[in-house]
From TrEMBL:
Source lineage: Eukaryota, Fungi, Dikarya, Ascomycota, Pezizomycotina
Protein name, UniProt field: Short-chain dehydrogenase/reductase family protein
Entry-linked InterPro entries: NAD(P)-bd_dom_sf, SDR_fam
Keyword list, A-Z: NADP, Oxidoreductase
UniProt signal peptide: none
Domain of life from the UniProt record: Eukaryota
Keyword rRNA processing assigned: no
Record family assignment: Belongs to the short-chain dehydrogenases/reductases (SDR) family.
Protein's UniProt keywords contain Cell membrane: no
């Protein structure tokens, strides 16, 4: 019964249906915002909201350039923003090489970076494996997004120092973080000794996820969202919120190719679904350094209290495993990732397992 109450709280369902968020009013003048997955249903609306808020430069990170060009036409027509202030950059998160090249392009070409908004996702209910050898949901939702975040983190830090205002990493999460958690398999206790180096990429919990040993494929999307949320929580614990703010956001549900794959989902959205504009406003608002939100989950314009699942001892231990195994994967991909991790070690200290769990207990 506890699992059902926590996974499907009636108050959240009512809140999801009734929300009518006001348009954000804080200007993004002179700021550069990078939106990954910009052509998605919700993120395309968020791009329009950002344009209405006078964003300085809007960078659309997309897989399909044709769809992005059509979106630019819509933004220019509906929002009156100059076309020159919108850039299209191609990136394919199913490829680590594409992700690395995209980050290198941004680091070289952008004078500043104020917001990294990651809204890309895939929800494959059948298993697909990428050219890099990982289950596609896991690579797109977690590994490539973590890789991109690390590679762009120095740019965000430099921009914060130069412009004397916090920059923002905002990740569009999902109610799946709440709904999937109680049903997933955790790493085996003691599977990774705290004094040993991280498990190599071919082994460990992430590889079990990729091989379908953690949860059914139909629920893989939710587990990947949980894993990335845990990774972001850990990253936030090593960053100064006065320099870089880290947010996760549940913008609610709307009709999209990701959420209409089943009869139950279509029926739910018909009754309780939000408009894409409402979701887009929530996403745009998450690009602001909201007070007391660093490292937390946002729901609409408020900081959401963590569920008992996210506070559990098992989940705290999983954060450590996810952080270490993700590190072993990403450091093998790029010396730049090695350098960023080394700098995080210097600032936060390379944490022992016990110290790490104490730091995120609350």
């Amino acid at each position: 019964m506890m699992k059902i109450r926590e996974s499907f709280p009636l108050s959240s369902i009512r809140r999801q249906a009734k929300a009518n968020l006001a348009q954000p009013t804080t200007s993004f003048r002179d700021e550069t915002v990078v939106v990954i997955g910009a052509t998605g249903v919700m993120c395309s609306e968020a791009c329009k909201v950002l344009a209405q808020l006078d964003v300085g430069t809007l960078v659309l990170g997309v897989r399909n350039v044709g769809k992005a060009e059509a979106l630019v036409d819509e933004i220019v027509t509906e929002c009156g923003i100059a076309r020159e202030r919108i850039l299209i950059k191609q990136v394919d998160l199913t490829s680590f090489e594409s992700t690395k090249a995209f980050a290198a392009d941004l680091n070289k070409s952008l004078p500043r970076l104020d917001v990294l908004l990651i809204g890309s996702a895939t929800n494959n209910t059948k298993k697909f494996v990428t050219r890099d050898g990982w289950e596609e949901n896991l690579q797109v939702i977690h590994l490539s997004c973590a890789f991109l975040t690390l590679l762009l983190l120095p740019k965000l830090q430099i921009s914060a120092n130069e412009n004397h205002t916090p920059t923002v990493i905002s990740n569009v999460s999902s109610s799946a973080v709440r709904m999937t958690g109680p049903w997933m398999k955790f790493p085996a206790k003691g599977s990774q000794h705290p004094n040993k180096p991280p498990a190599p990429a071919p082994a460990g919990y992430l590889r079990d996820m990729s091989d379908g040993k953690v949860i059914w494929q139909i629920a893989q999307y939710g587990v990947c969202k949980i894993v990335h949320y845990c990774w972001l929580e850990t990253l936030s614990s090593l960053l100064d919120p006065g320099q870089v703010h880290v947010h996760s956001l549940d913008p609610g549900c709307t009709r999209s190719p990701l959420s209409t794959g089943s009869v139950i989902a279509r029926a739910y959205l018909k009754v309780f679904g939000r408009s894409p504009l409402t979701c887009g406003r929530a996403i745009a608002h998450s690009c602001l350094p909201v007070e007391n939100s660093h490292g937390a989950m946002l729901w609409d314009y408020e900081v959401e209290k963590p569920t008992s699942f996210m506070k559990s001892a098992k989940t705290r231990e999983m954060r450590k495993v996810v952080w270490d195994e993700t590190r072993s994967v990403l450091e093998a991909l790029s010396p730049d990732a090695v350098q960023v991790y080394a700098e995080l070690d210097q600032k936060g200290g390379r944490m022992s397992s016990d110290r790490f769990l104490d730091s995120i207990k609350n």
